[in-house]
Write a structure and sequence with these properties.
There is one protein chain. The chain is of the alpha/beta class. It has helices at 2-10, 19-22, 36-46, 66-70, 99-115, and strands spanning 26-30, 53-57, 119-123, 140-144. The strands form two sheets. It has a two-stranded parallel ribbon. It has a two-stranded parallel sheet with strand order 3-4. The longest helix has 17 residues, at 99-115. The protein is extended, with a radius of gyration of 21 Å.
């Protein structure tokens, strides 16, 4: 599927192998996803179709923010921040408990009890990023904490 999506991006939506059209959807591609006027035009065009439309919008992560352009994955999603510095706004800083840790621990206990062996990968305040697989693992748990610090 990733190859198909890559081909659609590289051909600006004109690739012959189009999964979405094969599913009976109208397919529109917008190259300038960071341009508000281009998005409005694409949405207006989508409204003219009589059947479901998939609007594939290509955006450049962090466009206009040097620190975000340099660290695209870190800035793919972020809590509200000060534009000048990239620092998380004080009112959003993590001071209360982060329930992602408790959720991960609870799910791991339940899965280990049921399946015997589990693997964890993801990011939370306590667990950090974990990769790899536990040998003989019969299940996997991948999470991404809802609150991250860049």
């Amino acid at each position: 599927m990733y190859k198909t999506l890559k081909a659609l991006r590289e051909t600006k939506g004109e690739a012959k192998d189009n999964l979405f059209r094969a599913m009976g959807l109208e397919y529109l591609y917008e190259e300038n996803g960071n341009d508000t006027e281009a998005l409005i035009a694409a949405l207006q065009k989508a409204k003219t179709y009589q059947r479901p439309v998939l609007l594939h919008i290509f955006t450049r992560k962090g466009m206009g923010l040097p620190y975000a352009e340099e660290h695209k994955e870190t800035w793919h999603w972020h809590l509200p921040f000060y534009r000048e510095t990239g620092e998380t706004r004080k009112e959003w800083a993590e001071e209360e408990e982060d329930y992602s840790d408790f959720t991960v621990e609870f799910l791991l206990r339940k899965m280990k009890k049921t399946l015997g062996s589990c693997d964890y990968g993801g990011r939370s305040r306590r667990y950090g990023i974990h990769g790899g697989e536990e040998k003989g693992s019969r299940c996997g748990l991948w999470t991404w904490a809802s609150r991250s610090k860049a």
